[in-house]
C-alpha cells in the first residue's frame, strides 16, 4: 500500500513540471495496442455518474497484522465500511488466493475467524471490500498464468466473503508487469461477460501517485481495464510517500488528486467517454497514510486530515480511504514515544483512539450495499449443538485469546477473566470479551483428539496419582501435574491453573500459544 512513486518535483506551492500529455498518449498507445493487443479507442467502461457511489470513507484494514484489528465491532470502526487487504498468490500454489501469503481462505477462517468477522460486519448493515495486491508479496495476476483460473480466483473470493466491492491495489514491480496487467484485465472481463459475481461488483483500481499525478505505468493500468470493457467504479490514488520532506501534506495530497483528475480526463476523452467536471471526480478516490509516512519528513496530521476531508467533500470525490485502521491510534503514553514513530499499529503522531477515522467519518456516503453477491441471505445458526467452540461457562476461567460461544455468538477473551458474561458486553473497550460474530449454518461442534482405549489407565475416583502419571478420561488423555486423589481431569478445562491435571490434547477455542 505504501509504495508510492517518489517525486522529484518542487513543493506544491511552486510551479511544477507536469507529464506531457503527448508522452502519456504515446505511452498509452504503445502499451494499449501492442502490450494488450487491442485497439485503444473504444467505448469507455467507467460506470455512469448516476451509478457511481457518493463520497464515502472506508479505511483499509490489514487483516494479517498483529495485533488483530476488530473492525467488526462498531466502536472500533465507526465508519461501518472497510477495505480488507491483501489477497495475494499463495507461495505454495500460484493460482490459490491467500491472505498476505500466510493463510488460504479456509485457513484465515479457522485461524483469524475472518469469515465470521466479515459476516458479523455485514449482518450489522456495514459494507466491506476486499483488496487484491498491495506492496508486499506476489499479486495473483503475476503468479497465476492461467487466465481462466485467475478469473475463478477473483470470483471465489467475492463469493466466499459475499462482497460486492473489489479493490485492485497495483504497485511496485507489478506496475511494469505487462503480462500480469493483461491477465488481470482479461480475467475480470471473462467473469463479467459470463455474468459471474464480478459482473455485479464495484471494481476499484488503486494506484501510487506523485505530485504529478499518476505515472505512465499507472495510467496504463487504467487503460488496460477500459480497453477490456471492465466496468470500473473508479480510480483510487495513493497520495503518500513522495520520497522527500513535504512541509504541507494536505496541499501535496490535493495536488496529487487534482493532477490525477486532469490525467484521467484526457484518458476518458481518448476512450470516447465524455465524462467532465464533477462526473469524472465522482469516479476518483484518494488514500492517505495517516501520521508518519514511510518517507522521512512526511507526516499527515489531524489538521491535514480535516483539510483533506473538506477537499474530498467539496470536490465530490467518490472515495476517501486511509492506511490503515490498524494504525489509527497513539503509539504510547508519552510524547517522547508518541511522535515520529513509523509503526504498523499506531500513527506516530499525537492523537486519541480512532481520531483520524472520526475526522473522515464526516463523509457520509455509502461504499455499496452489504448484499450477498451470491444472492442468498447470510444464514445464522443458534443451535448450541452446532457451536464451533466451547459454550461459555460462568465458573470457568479464560485466558487471553480463548474463544467461546454464548447465545449463538462467538467471543474471544481479551484478557484473563472469570464469571464475566460475554453477552453482557456493552463497551468493547473495557469488556474482557470481544464479539467476533455469529455461529453460521454449516458450523459444527469442536472435536478433540482421542486415543484408543488401553493407551493409558482409565481415571477412577479412588485412584491416587503422582505427578507425571497419564490417564484417559472419557477417551481423552490427561497428565497429572502433581499428586492428587479424586480430582476429575475435566477440572483442567474449568480452571487450568488450579487443576492438578493438564490435557494432552488441543482444546478448541484456546490460544495456540
Description:
- With about 525 residues, the protein is an alpha/beta fold.
- The protein folds into two domains: about 350 residues, Glycosidases (TIM Barrel, Alpha-Beta Barrel); about 55 residues, Ribbon (Seminal Fluid Protein  PDC-109 (Domain B)).
- Helices cover about 25% and strands about 20% of the residues.
- The strands form six sheets. Strands 1, 2, 3, 4, 5, 6, 7, 8, 9, 10, 11 and 14 form a twelve-stranded mixed beta sheet that branches. Strands 16-17-19 form a three-stranded antiparallel beta sheet. A three-stranded antiparallel beta sheet has the order 21-22-24, with no helix packed on it.
- Helix 6 links the parallel strand 7 and strand 8.
- Helix 5 packs across helix 6.
- The chain is elongated, with a radius of gyration of 26 Å.
- The N terminus is likely disordered.
Low-confidence stretches: 2-45, 47-52, 369-378
CATH superfamily of the largest domain: Glycosidases
**Which value, in Å, is the CA radius of gyration?**
26 Å
Backbone shape:
elongated
SS-derived structural category: alpha/beta
**Biggest β-sheet strands, sense, barrel:** 12 strands, mixed
Strand content: 15-25%
CATH architecture of the largest domain, by name, is: Alpha-Beta Barrel
Enumerate how many helices there are, as a single number: 12
Amino acid at each position: 500500500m505504501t509504495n508510492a512513486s517518489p517525486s522529484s518535483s518542487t513543493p506544491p506551492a511552486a510551479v511544477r513540471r507536469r507529464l506531457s500529455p503527448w508522452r502519456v498518449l504515446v505511452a498509452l498507445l504503445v502499451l494499449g495496442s501492442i502490450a494488450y493487443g487491442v485497439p485503444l479507442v473504444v467505448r469507455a467502461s467507467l460506470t455512469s455518474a448516476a451509478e457511481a457511489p457518493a463520497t464515502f470513507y472506508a479505511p483499509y484494514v490489514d487483516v494479517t497484522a498483529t495485533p488483530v484489528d476488530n473492525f467488526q465491532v462498531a466502536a472500533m470502526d465507526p465508519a461501518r465500511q472497510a477495505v480488507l487487504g491483501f489477497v495475494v498468490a499463495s507461495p505454495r500454489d500460484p493460482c490459490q488466493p491467500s491472505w498476505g501469503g500466510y493463510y488460504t481462505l479456509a485457513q484465515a477462517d479457522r485461524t483469524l475467524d475472518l469469515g465470521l468477522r466479515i459476516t458479523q460486519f455485514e449482518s450489522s448493515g456495514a459494507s466491506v471490500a476486499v483488496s487484491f495486491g498491495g506492496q508486499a508479496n506476489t499479486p495473483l495476476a503475476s503468479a497465476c498464468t492461467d487466465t481462466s483460473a485467475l478469473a475463478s480466483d477473483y470470483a471465489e473470493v467475492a463469493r466466499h466473503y459475499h462482497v460486492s466491492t473489489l479493490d485492485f491495489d497495483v504497485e511496485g514491480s507489478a506496475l511494469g508487469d505487462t503480462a500480469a496487467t493483461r491477465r488481470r484485465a482479461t480475467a475480470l472481463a471473462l467473469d463479467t461477460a459470463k455474468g459471474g459475481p464480478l459482473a455485479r461488483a464495484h471494481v476499484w483500481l488503486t494506484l501510487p501517485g506523485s505530485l504529478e499525478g499518476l505515472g505512465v505505468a499507472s495510467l496504463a493500468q487504467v487503460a488496460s481495464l477500459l480497453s477490456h470493457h471492465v466496468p470500473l467504479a473508479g480510480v483510487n490514488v495513493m497520495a503518500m510517500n513522495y520520497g522527500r520532506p513535504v512541509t504541507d501534506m494536505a496541499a501535496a495530497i490535493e495536488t496529487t488528486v487534482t493532477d490525477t483528475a486532469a490525467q484521467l480526463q484526457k484518458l476518458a476523452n481518448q476512450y470516447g467517454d465524455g465524462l467532465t467536471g464533477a462526473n469524472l471526480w465522482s469516479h476518483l478516490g484518494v488514500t492517505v497514510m495517516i501520521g508518519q509516512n514511510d518517507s522521512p519528513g512526511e507526516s499527515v496530521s489531524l489538521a491535514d486530515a480535516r483539510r483533506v476531508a473538506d477537499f474530498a467533500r467539496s470536490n465530490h470525490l467518490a472515495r476517501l480511504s486511509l492506511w490503515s485502521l490498524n494504525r489509527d491510534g497513539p503509539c504510547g503514553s508519552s510524547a517522547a514515544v508518541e511522535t515520529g514513530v513509523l509503526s504498523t499499529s499506531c500513527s506516530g503522531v499525537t492523537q486519541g483512539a480512532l481520531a483520524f477515522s472520526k475526522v473522515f467519518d464526516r463523509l457520509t456516503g455509502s461504499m455499496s450495499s452489504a448484499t450477498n453477491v451470491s444472492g442468498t441471505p447470510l444464514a445464522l445458526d443458534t443451535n448450541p449443538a452446532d457451536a464451533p467452540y466451547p459454550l461459555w461457562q460462568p465458573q470457568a476461567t479464560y485466558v487471553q485469546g480463548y474463544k467461546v460461544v454464548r447465545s449463538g455468538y462467538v467471543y474471544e477473551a481479551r484478557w484473563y477473566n472469570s464469571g464475566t458474561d460475554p453477552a453482557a458486553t456493552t463497551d468493547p473497550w473495557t469488556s474482557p470479551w470481544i464479539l467476533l460474530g455469529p455461529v453460521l449454518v454449516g458450523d459444527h461442534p469442536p472435536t478433540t483428539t482421542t486415543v484408543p482405549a488401553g493407551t493409558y489407565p482409565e481415571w477412577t475416583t479412588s485412584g491416587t496419582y503422582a505427578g507425571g502419571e497419564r490417564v484417559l478420561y472419557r477417551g481423552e488423555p490427561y497428565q497429572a501435574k502433581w499428586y492428587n486423589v479424586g480430582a476429575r481431569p475435566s477440572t483442567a478445562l474449568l480452571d487450568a491453573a488450579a487443576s492438578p491435571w493438564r490435557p494432552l490434547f488441543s482444546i478448541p477455542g484456546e490460544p495456540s500459544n
